[in-house]
Each structure stands twice: as C-alpha cells, then as structure tokens.
Amino acid sequence: MAKALSLFSITPSGDGYELHIEDEDGEVLELVASFEQLDLISEEIDRQLDGDEDEALSADEEPSDEDEE
C-alpha cells in the first residue's frame, strides 16, 4: 500500500542532486539523480498536473441538468 508523502527536498551534490523523500511514518528514502533525470521528473509532474487541470476545467464547463431545462 502506498504511503503519504510527508517531506520532499532536493539539494545539489557533486555532479548531481540528492533527493530526500520522507513518508508519513518518518521513513526517509535518499536518492542521487542527474540533471537529466530531474528534468524528466519535472516534465512528468507538469504533464500530470496539466492533465488534472484540463480535467477539472472541462468538468466545470459541462452543463448541469439544471442548465438543460
């Protein structure tokens, strides 16, 4: 079962970046990523958020039953 994200940070480190991801239980996952990997993560986050925003906006534009009467 997936755990809830509690804390997330990125710090420069040598030739890359250290990612620190803490879950709701206080467990920490530390990863090293390159600039290119962070760029791919960023692009995927943007893609997901844009899709969610598009869905929310299209749901707001759909006529309600009251509008059809």
Short characterization:
By secondary structure, this protein is an alpha+beta fold. It has one helix at residues 35-61; strands at residues 5-13, 16-23, 28-33. It is built from 1 helix and 3 strands; from the N terminus they run βββα.
Any key phrases for this structure?
69 residues, 3 strands, 33% strand
Number of strands: 3
Which percent bin holds the helix content?
25-40%
* Molecular shape: flat
List the domain count as a whole number. Answer: 1
What does the main sheet amount to?
Answer: 3 strands, antiparallel
Number of helices: 1
Strand order of the largest sheet: 1-2-3
- The average pLDDT score comes to 88
User: What low-confidence regions span 5 or more consecutive residues with pLDDT below 50?
Assistant: none
Give the helix/strand class: alpha+beta
Gyration radius from CA atoms, angstroms: 19 Å
Q: Report strand %.
A: 25-35%
Give the helices and strands as they follow along the chain.
EEEH
Distance between the termini: 45 Å
Report on this model:
A three-stranded antiparallel beta sheet has the order 1-2-3. By secondary structure, the chain is α+β, with helices and mostly antiparallel strands. It has one domain. Strand 2 and strand 3 form a beta hairpin. The termini are far apart. It contains one helix and three strands, in the order E-E-E-H. The chain is flat and about 55 Å long.
